[in-house]
Amino acid sequence: MDANTQQIVVGFRTPEALAKGESVLRNYTAAQYTTESPAALDQVPQQRRPDSQSGLPYAAALGGLAGAMIGAFISVLTTQLPNLPTVEGSTTELFVLVPLGGAVLGAIASSLLSLLSGANPEEPDFAYYKLIMTPASGEEAQKVTEALLAENGRLLPEDQRLL
Protein backbone atom coordinates (compact mmCIF):
# COMPACT_ATOMS: atom_id res chain seq x y z
CA MET A 1 0.00 0.00 0.00
CA ASP A 2 1.35 3.43 -0.89
CA ALA A 3 2.12 5.57 2.18
CA ASN A 4 0.73 8.67 0.42
CA THR A 5 -2.75 7.19 0.09
CA GLN A 6 -2.87 5.57 3.52
CA GLN A 7 -5.04 7.37 6.02
CA ILE A 8 -5.06 7.02 9.78
CA VAL A 9 -8.51 7.29 11.35
CA VAL A 10 -8.53 7.49 15.15
CA GLY A 11 -11.73 7.83 17.18
CA PHE A 12 -12.15 9.59 20.50
CA ARG A 13 -15.18 9.33 22.76
CA THR A 14 -15.40 12.95 23.90
CA PRO A 15 -14.61 16.34 22.38
CA GLU A 16 -12.04 16.92 25.13
CA ALA A 17 -10.20 13.73 24.18
CA LEU A 18 -10.31 14.84 20.54
CA ALA A 19 -8.72 18.17 21.50
CA LYS A 20 -5.95 16.31 23.36
CA GLY A 21 -5.42 14.12 20.31
CA GLU A 22 -5.14 17.19 18.08
CA SER A 23 -2.51 18.74 20.35
CA VAL A 24 -0.52 15.48 20.36
CA LEU A 25 -0.78 15.34 16.58
CA ARG A 26 0.57 18.89 16.25
CA ASN A 27 3.60 17.89 18.38
CA TYR A 28 4.44 14.84 16.26
CA THR A 29 3.83 16.04 12.71
CA ALA A 30 3.06 19.00 10.50
CA ALA A 31 0.75 16.96 8.26
CA GLN A 32 -2.77 18.16 7.60
CA TYR A 33 -5.64 16.48 9.38
CA THR A 34 -9.41 16.75 9.55
CA THR A 35 -11.87 16.09 12.33
CA GLU A 36 -15.46 14.82 12.23
CA SER A 37 -18.13 14.95 14.91
CA PRO A 38 -20.57 12.09 15.41
CA ALA A 39 -24.14 12.19 14.18
CA ALA A 40 -26.98 12.35 16.67
CA LEU A 41 -27.48 8.87 18.13
CA ASP A 42 -31.18 9.34 18.86
CA GLN A 43 -31.97 9.03 15.15
CA VAL A 44 -30.66 5.46 14.99
CA PRO A 45 -33.48 2.89 15.17
CA GLN A 46 -32.96 0.14 17.69
CA GLN A 47 -33.14 -3.41 16.39
CA ARG A 48 -33.49 -6.81 17.95
CA ARG A 49 -30.40 -8.92 18.13
CA PRO A 50 -30.29 -10.85 14.85
CA ASP A 51 -29.30 -14.11 16.52
CA SER A 52 -31.85 -13.99 19.34
CA GLN A 53 -33.87 -16.92 18.01
CA SER A 54 -31.04 -19.09 16.72
CA GLY A 55 -30.76 -21.05 19.98
CA LEU A 56 -34.50 -21.59 20.44
CA PRO A 57 -34.64 -25.31 19.44
CA TYR A 58 -31.60 -26.08 21.58
CA ALA A 59 -33.13 -24.27 24.55
CA ALA A 60 -36.45 -26.11 24.10
CA ALA A 61 -34.68 -29.49 23.94
CA LEU A 62 -32.54 -28.73 26.97
CA GLY A 63 -35.55 -27.47 28.95
CA GLY A 64 -37.57 -30.52 27.95
CA LEU A 65 -34.81 -32.85 29.04
CA ALA A 66 -34.41 -31.06 32.37
CA GLY A 67 -38.18 -31.07 32.95
CA ALA A 68 -38.42 -34.79 32.17
CA MET A 69 -35.59 -35.56 34.58
CA ILE A 70 -37.21 -33.54 37.33
CA GLY A 71 -40.55 -35.24 36.63
CA ALA A 72 -38.93 -38.68 36.81
CA PHE A 73 -37.23 -37.74 40.07
CA ILE A 74 -40.58 -36.63 41.52
CA SER A 75 -42.15 -39.91 40.36
CA VAL A 76 -39.48 -41.97 42.07
CA LEU A 77 -39.82 -39.98 45.28
CA THR A 78 -43.60 -40.38 45.19
CA THR A 79 -43.36 -44.17 44.98
CA GLN A 80 -41.35 -44.18 48.18
CA LEU A 81 -44.25 -42.73 50.20
CA PRO A 82 -45.57 -45.36 52.61
CA ASN A 83 -49.20 -46.56 52.56
CA LEU A 84 -50.44 -44.37 49.72
CA PRO A 85 -52.94 -46.51 47.74
CA THR A 86 -53.39 -43.91 45.00
CA VAL A 87 -49.70 -44.07 44.11
CA GLU A 88 -49.52 -47.86 44.34
CA GLY A 89 -52.41 -48.33 41.90
CA SER A 90 -51.17 -45.95 39.19
CA THR A 91 -47.43 -46.38 38.88
CA THR A 92 -47.54 -46.59 35.06
CA GLU A 93 -49.34 -43.28 34.74
CA LEU A 94 -47.06 -41.79 37.35
CA PHE A 95 -43.91 -42.80 35.49
CA VAL A 96 -45.27 -41.63 32.11
CA LEU A 97 -47.42 -38.55 32.71
CA VAL A 98 -45.33 -36.76 35.34
CA PRO A 99 -42.06 -36.84 33.31
CA LEU A 100 -43.99 -35.97 30.14
CA GLY A 101 -45.65 -33.01 31.85
CA GLY A 102 -42.28 -31.93 33.24
CA ALA A 103 -40.76 -32.13 29.75
CA VAL A 104 -43.53 -29.99 28.26
CA LEU A 105 -43.34 -27.37 31.02
CA GLY A 106 -39.52 -27.31 30.88
CA ALA A 107 -39.50 -26.89 27.10
CA ILE A 108 -42.03 -24.04 27.24
CA ALA A 109 -40.23 -22.25 30.07
CA SER A 110 -36.74 -22.47 28.54
CA SER A 111 -38.07 -21.48 25.08
CA LEU A 112 -39.68 -18.39 26.54
CA LEU A 113 -36.51 -17.48 28.41
CA SER A 114 -34.44 -17.95 25.28
CA LEU A 115 -36.85 -15.91 23.18
CA LEU A 116 -37.13 -13.07 25.67
CA SER A 117 -33.40 -12.89 26.32
CA GLY A 118 -32.98 -11.51 22.80
CA ALA A 119 -35.84 -9.05 23.08
CA ASN A 120 -33.85 -6.19 24.51
CA PRO A 121 -32.54 -3.99 21.70
CA GLU A 122 -28.96 -3.85 20.53
CA GLU A 123 -26.82 -1.12 21.89
CA PRO A 124 -26.21 1.35 19.08
CA ASP A 125 -22.70 1.49 17.74
CA PHE A 126 -20.72 4.14 19.51
CA ALA A 127 -20.13 7.19 17.36
CA TYR A 128 -16.63 8.59 17.71
CA TYR A 129 -15.16 12.01 17.28
CA LYS A 130 -12.79 11.17 14.46
CA LEU A 131 -9.35 12.50 13.67
CA ILE A 132 -8.26 11.71 10.10
CA MET A 133 -4.75 12.33 8.77
CA THR A 134 -2.57 11.18 5.88
CA PRO A 135 1.03 10.58 7.02
CA ALA A 136 3.98 11.29 4.77
CA SER A 137 5.83 8.08 5.63
CA GLY A 138 5.40 4.75 7.35
CA GLU A 139 7.58 5.85 10.28
CA GLU A 140 5.48 8.95 10.80
CA ALA A 141 2.31 6.83 10.64
CA GLN A 142 3.70 4.50 13.30
CA LYS A 143 4.72 7.35 15.66
CA VAL A 144 1.47 9.24 15.25
CA THR A 145 -0.67 6.14 15.70
CA GLU A 146 1.15 5.12 18.88
CA ALA A 147 0.88 8.64 20.29
CA LEU A 148 -2.84 8.91 19.56
CA LEU A 149 -3.56 5.47 20.98
CA ALA A 150 -1.68 6.46 24.13
CA GLU A 151 -4.20 9.32 24.47
CA ASN A 152 -7.11 6.81 24.66
CA GLY A 153 -7.85 6.96 20.95
CA ARG A 154 -9.18 3.96 19.08
CA LEU A 155 -7.93 3.02 15.63
CA LEU A 156 -10.91 2.89 13.27
CA PRO A 157 -11.17 1.40 9.78
CA GLU A 158 -10.90 3.94 6.98
CA ASP A 159 -14.29 3.13 5.57
CA GLN A 160 -16.20 3.51 8.86
CA ARG A 161 -18.86 6.14 8.42
CA LEU A 162 -20.69 8.01 11.09
CA LEU A 163 -24.07 6.73 12.18
Task: Using brief descriptors, characterize the structure shown.
single chain; 163 residues; alpha+beta; Alpha-Beta Plaits; 2 domains; four-stranded antiparallel sheet; 10% strand; transmembrane helix; membrane; transmembrane
Write a structural description.
By secondary structure, the protein is an alpha+beta fold. The chain has 2 domains: 8-41 and 124-156, Alpha-Beta Plaits; 56-117, no CATH class. The chain is built from 5 helices and 4 strands. The protein has a 4-stranded antiparallel beta sheet. It is rod-shaped. The relative contact order is 0.30. The chain crosses the membrane at residues 55-74, 94-116. Keywords: Membrane, Transmembrane, Transmembrane helix.
